[in-house]
Amino acid sequence: MNNQKLQIKKKVKKHIPKDWLCELRILYRLTMETFNDIKRTGIVNLVIITTMAAILTIFGAFFRSAMSISSFAHELGNVLEISVYLKSGTDTNVAKNRIKEFEHVENVKIIPKDVSWANLRREMSLPDISNPLPDTLHVKVDKPENITTVFNNIKDLKSVVEDMSYAQELAKKIQTLNHVVNTITVLVVIIMCILTITIINNTIQLVIQSRKDEIEIMRLMGVSNWYIRFPLIMQGAFYGFAGSLIAILPLNLVQNGLNNVHKFFMVPSPLYAHSIVIFTMFAMGILFGAGGSFLCIKKHLQV
After folding, report:
1. How much is the pTM?
2. Best CA proximity match to 154, nearest among 85, 79, 77, 80
3. Cα distance between residue 153 and residue 156, in whole Å
4. 228 vs 51, higher pLDDT
5. Disulfide-capable partner of 86 in 9, 75, 90, 149 (CB 3.0 to 4.6 Å)?
């Protein structure tokens, strides 16, 4: 029976001509109602926006720092190479082609044993003996986290490979650093979400209590639930937007400081990093603000 009523209601609505002027008036009314709710909150608005700005600043600083640390880790990973020492009599070009077929291998460079021996004799005083060094391949991997996989694959080429080496400890430290940074960023996002929803929840609850009689009257008049919810959700979104706007100022200082660090170490800064952080910060601020309001409405307002 209820399903039939809903279907009839939808069919009736389809045949009702839309009055765009009326729609605009409703939107204007909802917008004014949002501003009125913000005015009712009074000086508490300043506390909420400041708190939101502090939370978003912490998130933005961690997120931007994580991007820079990942950039440094990537640059360090790019200099990591696997040194492959070939058995005597091995065709270096054949060995090179076989290794290049492995997944995650970016480049393979041949270092002939004569070149290695000449470089060694230039750096050290050595007796006049025959060249004891093997031909060497320097294998470059696409990402630091894939170096162990490539190492194990090359190790299986026992017919051509005599020995191998790479900076294993450095590779592990780079992987650990990336893991720690990503974990901290996720934890900051979770904490930010909890704090934002808690703050918005308390604020919207006060607004609901102050408008209790007005909301009850609107219910009796048959006002749509979304007409009651919309101003409160927009109020939460406003807090997120205003907090993000203020958070841009300290984030600019963080951005300038990190750019100086990148210049000092001659490591390129991540492309569009600042823009990505600001966009993410605004999106999360507005989303968490509106989401916090919506959850509060469901909890304290039976509409």
Report:
1. 0.67
2. 85
3. 6
4. 51
5. 90
